[in-house]
Amino acid sequence: DAGITQSPRYKITETGRQVTLMCHQTWSHSYMFWYRQDLGHGLRLIYYSAAADITDKGEVPDGYVVSRSKTENFPLTLESATRSQTSVYFCASSGGATEQYFGPGTRLTVT
Amino acid sequence: EDQVTQSPEALRLQEGESSSLNCSYTVSGLRGLFWYRQDPGKGPEFLFTLYSAGEEKEKERLKATLTKKESFLHITAPKPEDSATYLCAVQPLRSNTGKLIFGQGTTLQVKP
């Protein structure tokens, strides 16, 4: 099906472990984004990508790593998870400086 | 500093009781203003884009308007299925990468 998907939808991990959240879109959108959503903070941009092999930091990039070897995929890696990274993570894509389309989210709990 | 403030934080309406949600923004040049709807446990769903003051967009019971300092989302005769969190976001003129700055949202509850 066309659209944007995220996996896993739910993840529980321990402090210090590495975890990767996956994002896949079928629209061939150039731009992709990772946000985290927390109570009291709203949606905050972690990283974004303008095209394959082009990524840049957003508002809250510390502790996260991204890559984009293919246009359709934009994985987000927490290299050493901390409790403060417990959050709901959303991936989004857009065709340009236009509206973004969001995935269903990944709820991550770090214990 | 670019900023988006939404009010009220929460709004409870009776079915059929029309109201408006506010999105005030401070940005050095506006490329676009976006409204999204978010249901619990789901990702934001795109509703509208507004580009210039005076512009209006409508979809079913929703109408979005834009001035130079704020946007309103008017809800006419709401139904319980309109219950959701409504998010406003701005895209600064200087942003050619599609980056958005979000407000914290207004949670709307419509009671039958």
**Largest sheet report of chain A:** 7 strands, mixed
Q: Beta-strand level of the residues of chain A, as a percent range?
A: over 45%
Task: Give the quaternary arrangement of the chains.
Answer: heterodimer
How many distinct helices of chain B? Answer: 0
Number of strands of chain A: 11
Tell me about the largest β-sheet of chain B. Answer: 6 strands, mixed
Mean pLDDT of chain A: 95
Please give the share of residues in helix of chain B.
under 10%
Largest interface: A-B, 25 and 24 residues
Q: pLDDT under 50 segments of chain B (min length 5)?
A: none
User: What does the average pLDDT of chain B come to?
Assistant: 95
Gap between N and C termini of chain B:
41 Å
| Overall body shape of chain A | globular
Q: Rg of chain A, please?
A: 13 Å
Per DSSP, the total helix count of chain A is 0
Structure report:
The complex is a heterodimer of chains A (111) and B (112). Helix content of chain A is 0%, strand content 52%. Chain A is mainly beta. In chain A, strands 2, 4, 5, 6, 9, 10 and 11 form a 7-stranded mixed β-sheet that branches. A 4-stranded antiparallel β-sheet of chain A has the order 1-3-8-7, with no helix packed on it. By secondary structure, chain B is mostly beta strands. Chain B starts with a strand and ends with a strand. Classes of the chains: A mainly beta (111), B mainly beta (112).
Question: Gist?
Answer:
With 111 residues, chain A is an all-beta fold. Chain A has no helices and 11 strands.
Key descriptive features of the protein:
heterodimer; A: 111 residues; mainly beta; seven-stranded mixed beta sheet; 52% strand; B: 112 residues; six-stranded mixed beta sheet; five-stranded antiparallel beta sheet; 58% strand
Set out the fold topology.
The complex is a heterodimer of chains A (111) and B (112).
Chain A: E1 4-7, E2 10-13, E3 19-25, E4 31-38, E5 42-51, E6 54-57, E7 64-66, E8 76-78, E9 87-94, E10 101-102, E11 106-110
Parallel strand pairs in A: 2-11
Antiparallel strand pairs in A: 1-3, 3-8, 4-5, 4-9, 5-6, 7-8, 9-10, 9-11
Chain B: E1 3-7, E2 10-14, E3 19-26, E4 30-38, E5 45-50, E6 56-59, E7 62-66, E8 70-75, E9 84-92, E10 101-102, E11 106-111
Parallel strand pairs in B: 2-11
Antiparallel strand pairs in B: 1-3, 3-8, 4-5, 4-9, 6-7, 7-8, 9-10, 9-11
